[in-house]
Design goal:
The protein has about 475 residues and is of the alpha+beta class. The chain is built from twelve helices and 25 strands.
């Protein structure tokens, strides 16, 4: 269906940078001629509406209940009705604009808009605002409030020139994009499920090896086992040791907490690692902030190739305690206070420890430590890390396990990488398709007319949050 889409027969210059040429029969108008800003009173029964960065506007409870800043008093809240166009003034640059699927109340930072005239489809204009965000037009309008943020209030939105196709075309565009989006999201979800299954299989193989459930030389259990004395570890091979991390390291370094700018180092300046610098055994060099030129730090904090890094904290609980090894470096980086660097003793293979510290039994210790660290949600205390237990074979056996796992999980890793690449391409394709259709670069009228009847507009809260929140959204 999409492959058969063609441009319109004639175009004219819109005079708007983010919009470019539009179909010759389309009009343009300032948003103030299409929408009014509502300021409805709030009822006692109203629940909180949240405008998310992926364009979903719904009751907060429909998506998640954690991770929000809670106010002691609800001041300035306004009523929101299903079908309202809602624009988040501070987060519109990141795509926080959409049509509410519920009645409720929203913060005063939202512009709650309704059409002034009947020939306006709010769903189409939600796509328009999100395209203004994707093209960075909203960022270009910013007046220096703070980096990567704006104050896209209704007055600013109202002054913008926006496309004004005939209402049937607005409706056709929305119908087509809803249909295409459902199909693309299904493909993305299938890739996510595949990646999760591959990761689960890989983790099972690693767990068996690093806990001694399987002798990698024979593929069978070891001949004799002994109790580890650790509940979540169980029995271990009789000749293995169970040791605390503090006995396996010379020391554990921790970095500093400087004020840093939120962009990548240019290769000459220094950067400080962020919490997400490692995940699932992989070092992510781009997860850092640039240091001020005059910042003075101890050169011993510099990150070098071969370092093992442990993420101490993250806004996402699943990243806390993630471990990775630095394979190569493009930027000059130092440790942050959110990063630990264990320096292992001579008879400990760092690659074995990276595998063990990304295994299930390590994660269980992390979760227990965090749950017991009062007032330190999603923060791994150094004292807890030092006390973690590990099942440790002799050095040669550690090395054999590493080599075996590198070989046995290689196909799984390759398949996961391919699935991730395909998922990224699907996200890019979806973004490009929406941009081309909303701005009139592709004519979808016939395609929309051929769609089966009875396709209801998808309830926005049903779309999976993790499709956007994972690797591709807030970067």
């Amino acid at each position: 269906m999409v492959a058969k889409l063609k441009p319109y027969s004639a175009y004219r210059d819109s005079g708007v940078p983010w919009l470019g040429e539009v179909p010759a029969h389309w009009e343009t108008n300032r948003a103030k001629g299409l929408f009014r800003k509502m300021e409805r009173p709030v009822k006692d029964s109203d629940e909180v509406i949240t405008c998310f960065r992926d364009g979903i506007v719904t009751l907060r409870k429909n998506r998640r209940v954690r991770g929000f800043t809670e106010s002691l008093k609800e001041i300035g809240y306004q009523g929101v009705l299903r079908g309202d166009l809602v624009i988040h003034a501070m987060d519109a640059f990141a795509g926080a604009a959409g049509v509410s699927d519920s009645d409720g109340k929203g913060t005063s930072v939202y512009s709650v808009c309704t059409p002034l005239i009947e020939s306006v489809d709010p769903y189409y204009y939600a796509f328009c605002v999100r395209e203004m965000a994707r093209s960075e037009w909203i960022l270009a309008l910013a007046k220096g409030i703070r980096e990567r943020s704006t104050d896209f209030r209704f007055a600013v939105f109202a002054s913008q020139i926006v496309p004004f196709p005939p209402l049937p075309e607005q409706t056709a565009i929305v119908r087509f994009l809803d249909h295409a989006d459902r199909r693309i999201q299904r493909y993305i979800h299938a890739k996510q499920k595949l990646m999760a299954l591959l990761e689960e299989q890989k983790q099972a193989i690693v767990h068996q090896a690093v806990t001694g459930q399987i002798d990698v030389r024979t593929g069978q259990p070891y001949p004799a086992y002994k109790p580890s004395g650790v509940e979540w570890l169980g029995d271990v091979p009789a000749h293995w040791e169970v040791r605390r991390l503090k006995s396996l390291v010379k020391r554990i370094d921790q970095g500093v907490s400087p004020q840093a700018d939120n962009y990548l180092a240019d290769g000459t300046a220094w950067g400080v690692l962020k919490a997400g610098c490692v995940n699932r055994g992989v070092f992510r060099e781009g997860e850092h902030k640039r240091l001020p030129p005059d910042f003075v730090f101890d050169s011993a904090l510099a990150v070098t190739t071969g370092d093992v890094l442990v993420s101490r904290a993250s806004g996402s609980a699943h990243l806390v305690g993630s471990v990775g090894r630095v394979s190569s470096l493009k930027y000059k980086l130092i440790l942050s206070d959110k990063t630990f660097r264990p320096i292992f003793k001579q008879q400990i293979d760092p690659d074995f420890m990276v595998l063990a510290m990304n295994s299930r039994y390590y994660r269980q210790q992390v979760e227990l430590a965090i749950s017991g660290a009062e007032g330190l949600a999603n923060n791994l205390p150094l004292s807890s890390l030092r006390a973690f237990h590990f099942a440790v074979p002799a050095f040669d056996e550690q090395h054999n396990i590493v080599e075996h796992l590198q070989t046995s999980t290689n196909k799984l890793s390759t398949a996961a990488t391919q699935a991730e690449r395909e998922m990224a391409l699907l996200h890019e394709y979806r973004t490009r398709l929406i941009a081309d259709v909303v701005t009139g670069k592709l004519d979808v009228r016939e395609a929309a007319a051929r769609l089966p009847d009875g396709e209801a507009k998808p309830k926005q809260s049903d779309k999976a949050q993790d499709l956007i929140d994972a690797a591709y959204a807030e970067r």
